[in-house]
Every structure is written in C-alpha cells, then in structure tokens.
C-alpha cells in the first residue's frame, strides 16, 4: 500500500486499515513535487458556474431522496474521502470509491485515487457505468472528460509522494464535477500546492472538498494556500481522523472563513443558496 504523504501522523479510527508512519519530510515544493514558483498563483479562468453573492447558507436535508430542482445538487458525506453527489436527473457519483467506505446506493460514476487503498478499489461493483481512475500506468497523466446525463466530470492530474519518499508523477487527480450551474471539486489525496497551469485548468470552483489531515496529504499551510487560490465559496473538510485533527484545521481558518457545522451528512446546494461569505461547512461522516 502506498503512503505518499509529505508528513505523517499516526492515524486513527473508523477504517479497517492501518497506515504506517514515515519520517517527516520537507515541504512539497522543496522536495520536487512541483516546480518552485516566483509568485503565489491565482485563479484566472472560471468554471462555467459563477459564485452567487448575498444569498443564504446551504440548507441541510434528510437522507430521503427528495426530487431535486434543475439547478440543485445533493451532496452527502459518506466518510473519509468519499462523497455521494447526486444530480437533478439522479446521476449518482461516488468520490474516492473504495472497499472500506461505500455510499448507501450504487453509483453510476466513481472516481478513485491510488495513494492508499482507502481511496480506490480493484473490484468495483458490477452495475457501475463509469470507473474513472485518477492515475494511469507508467506515470502518465490520466485524462477524463465524461458527459453523462446532466453531469460533466473532468480531472486535473497532480503528483504524489510514494511510500519511499520519491515523487510519483500524475499519481493523483483533482476531479471537477459540473452539474447545473454549479462547479464542485474534490482534491483527492493532494500532496503539493498547485501551479498556475493547474489552477487555470481547474477554474473557479463553487464547492471544494478538501483533505485537512495536514500529515498524510499536504500540510495545513499549503492546503490553505490551495483553498485561497481556488476561491471556492463553500469548503467541505474531509480526510481527518479525529476531532482534534478537524478542529486544528478549523482553528487555522476561522479568521478568514465562516465556520458552520450541520447535524446531517447530506445537503442540497444551488447557486442561490451558496453562502454570501466564504464558508467552511462540516458535515458528519465516518
């Protein structure tokens, strides 16, 4: 099992796997995961969905699958790095699909990354129509641009650190989901800050799913830089192993983001219900 995190912390409960610790490593750029940059990159291109202003916060809903309006998306945090994304035409997408944490319904599309076995499976269930792996063989970049029903799924490859500390080129993908007039992005098992080219290719994001462990993935300072570069109006934490890890991230961003917590793991989002101020929304999961 690969373990590419730049810095590792003993990880905890909730999964049927054990992550081996490895020594702390220098920052991702210094280690050669991405080239050094003279200036902090900024987003220049827009995803088709534009950010709404002056609107109420997203509203929590029950896990009952109520009919969605054409401009709505249902997002459910299943746990770890897995979300269930549902479109108005009930196209179902599961992120970082794996054998340990699964959504309650069979998805039509699954995305995967291969940093650890909790982010992919070699045995996807029959009936899944599209299996999108975020890596390719021989360190070639995976490229996806899938149009299915009322959704578009595309990816932007990034590098990861292998268990031995070497750089594995194109070992992770950031997946972007365009549904209605919303753009959602899942950072996967991100290990480095983003280049200007990657930021431009991703585009402006409305909703960003972010790993916040700060050890197996990118450190918190780097991850906050990525969040600010992508300018998402709604940020949803994932890939944390304890309340301590989660609150360590929340404490770091309270001075620049609103922080909200919901009792339900499922929300319905639309352009009109995006928060007026940049907000971190914590959804319960396992």
Describe this structure in words.
The chain has helices at about 195-200, 220-230, 245-255; strands spanning about 60, 70-80, 80-85, 90-95, 110, 130-135, 145-150, 150-160, 165-180, 180-185, 205-210, 235-240, 260, 265-270, 280. The chain is globular and about 45 Å long. It has one domain (about 60-280): Metallo-beta-lactamase, Chain A (4-Layer Sandwich), CATH 3.60.15. It contains 3 helices and 15 strands. Strands 7-8-9-10-11-12-15-13 form an 8-stranded mixed β-sheet. Strands 1-14-2-3-4-5-6 form a 7-stranded mixed β-sheet, with no helix packed on it. The two termini are about 20 Å apart.
Profile the largest sheet. 8 strands, mixed
For the largest sheet, list the strands in their spatial order. 7-8-9-10-11-12-15-13
Indicate the proportion of strand residues: 25-35%
CATH architectural type: 4-Layer Sandwich
Low-pLDDT stretches are: 1-32, 34-40, 49-64
Structural category is mainly beta
Radius of gyration: 17 Å
Cα(first) to Cα(last) distance is 21 Å
Mean pLDDT: 80
- Our count of domains comes out at 1
* CATH superfamily label: Ribonuclease Z/Hydroxyacylglutathione hydrolase-like
Helix-strand sequence? EEEEEEEEEEHEHEHEEE
**CATH-defined fold name:** Metallo-beta-lactamase, Chain A
Oligomer: single chain
Query: Quick one: how many beta strands?
Result: 15
| Count of DSSP H/I helices | 3
Which CATH top level class fits?
Alpha Beta
């Amino acid at each position: 099992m690969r373990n590419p995190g730049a810095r590792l912390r003993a990880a905890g409960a909730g999964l049927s796997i054990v992550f081996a610790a490895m020594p702390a490593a220098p920052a991702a750029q210094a280690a050669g995961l991405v080239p050094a940059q003279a200036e902090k990159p900024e987003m220049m291109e827009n995803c088709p969905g534009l950010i709404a202003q002056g609107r109420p916060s997203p509203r929590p809903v029950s896990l009952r699958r109520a009919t969605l309006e054409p401009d709505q998306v249902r997002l459910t945090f299943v746990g770890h790095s897995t979300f269930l994304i549902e479109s108005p035409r009930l196209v179902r997408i599961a992120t970082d699909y794996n054998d340990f944490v699964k959504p309650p319904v069979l998805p039509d599309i699954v995305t995967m990354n291969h940093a650890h076995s909790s982010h992919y499976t070699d045995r996807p269930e029959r009936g899944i129509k599209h299996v999108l792996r975020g890596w390719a063989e021989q360190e070639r970049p995976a490229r996806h641009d899938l149009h299915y029903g009322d959704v578009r799924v595309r990816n932007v490859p990034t590098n990861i650190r292998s268990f031995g500390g070497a750089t594995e080129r194109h070992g992770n993908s950031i997946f972007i989901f365009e549904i209605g007039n919303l753009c959602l992005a899942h950072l996967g098992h991100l290990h480095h800050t983003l280049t200007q080219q990657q930021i431009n290719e991703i585009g402006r994001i409305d909703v960003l799913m972010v790993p916040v462990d700060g050890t197996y993935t990118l450190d918190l300072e780097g991850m906050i830089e990525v969040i600010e570069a992508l300018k998402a109006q709604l940020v949803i934490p994932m890939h944390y192993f304890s309340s301590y890890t989660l609150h360590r991230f929340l404490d770091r961003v309270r001075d620049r983001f609103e922080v909200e917590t919901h009792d339900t793991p499922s929300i319905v989002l639309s352009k009109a219900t995006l928060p007026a101020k940049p907000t971190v929304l914590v959804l319960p999961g396992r």
